[in-house]
Amino acid sequence: MNNLLLTLLAVIITASAAAGGYWLQQTSDGTADDPAPASQSADAAPDHESIIGQRRPTFSLPGMAGEQRAISDWDGDILAINFWATWCQPCKEEVPEFVELQEKYRDQGVTFIGVAIDEQAPVSEFMARYDMNYPVLIGEQAAIDAAKAYGNRIGALPYTAFVDRDGKVVHVHRGRLPLEEADTVISKLVGASG
Predict the structure, then answer these.
(1) Both 107 and 24 in a single domain?
(2) Global pTM value
(3) pLDDT digits over 81-103, tens only?
(4) Are residues 77 and 26 in the same domain?
(5) What is the residue-wise DSSP string for 65-92?
(6) Partners of 169 in the beta sheet?
(7) Whether 76 and 150 share a structural domain
(8) How many Cβ atoms sit within 10 Å of the Cβ of residue 47?
(9) Interval 13-31: pLDDT, tens
(10) In terms of domains, do 72 and 150 share one?
(11) In a domain, 45, yes or no
(12) What is the rounded CA–CA span in Å between residue 144 and residue 152?
């Protein structure tokens, strides 16, 4: 009886994973319908490709100490704006690499900004565990709205947007950002402004 239950459980998990993978593939290819967010229609939000070359959208969210921070606080820096959550496994994998890149490029005017779609307590624990060395802003619906403004119409996590020193969005990546891709984008931006 136990073997039968274990086999049934394995089949259910496998089928769920396959269905989720299919859905993710369809949405990544842009072939599935984008759900309309509560605060704006999907048609009003830019997609991840059309935001490239546009002026970075403005937003303001609380920092870890509760102070309100606007994205314009970092005008003049090269920005890597990373939308993430503490419960997101790919986020857990890329944050240590972002910590490494922040250390590498800090003196060249590069700032990673984490936008946590989460609550303060788990974010604070996460930051301590991963020794995060860059600013983190917190929000739930407001952070989701900011991600949509940067082209994340489907609500993928993680999602990263790169902004040049002039405030123009130059690159976006949906899903886990490979270290090599992030390093290449940043080094080109640093070289172009140096």
Answers:
(1) no
(2) 0.76
(3) 999 999 999 999 999 999 999 99
(4) no
(5) TS-EEEGGGGTTSEEEEEEE-TT-HHHH
(6) 163
(7) yes
(8) 15
(9) 444 433 343 333 333 333 2
(10) yes
(11) no
(12) 9
Both tokens assigned to 56: 């970075």
- Interatomic CA distance for residues 170 and 164, integer angstroms: 7
Residue 176 maps to a domain: yes
Does residue 61 surpass a pLDDT of 70? yes
pLDDT digits (tens, 9 = 90+) for 117-140: 999 999 999 999 999 999 999 999
Per-residue tokens: 97: 């690499």
3 state DSSP class of 171: strand
Q: If you average pLDDT over every residue of the chain, what do you get?
A: 82
Question: Do residues 76 and 19 both lie within one domain?
Answer: no
- Count of domains for the chain: 2
What length is written for the chain?
194
Q: How many CB atoms lie within 10 A of CB 74?
A: 18
pLDDT surpasses 50 at 157 = yes
Closest CA relative to residue 90, chosen from 173, 9, 172: 173
Say if residue 80 is in the same domain as residue 6. Answer: no
- Give the range of the structural domain holding residue 90, as residue numbers without chain letter: 60-193
Domain presence at residue 116:
yes
User: 93 with 135, same domain?
Assistant: yes
Contacts of 186 (CB under 8 A, 6+ apart): 78, 80, 101, 105, 110, 162
Residue 42 lies in a domain: no
DSSP assigned state of 167: S
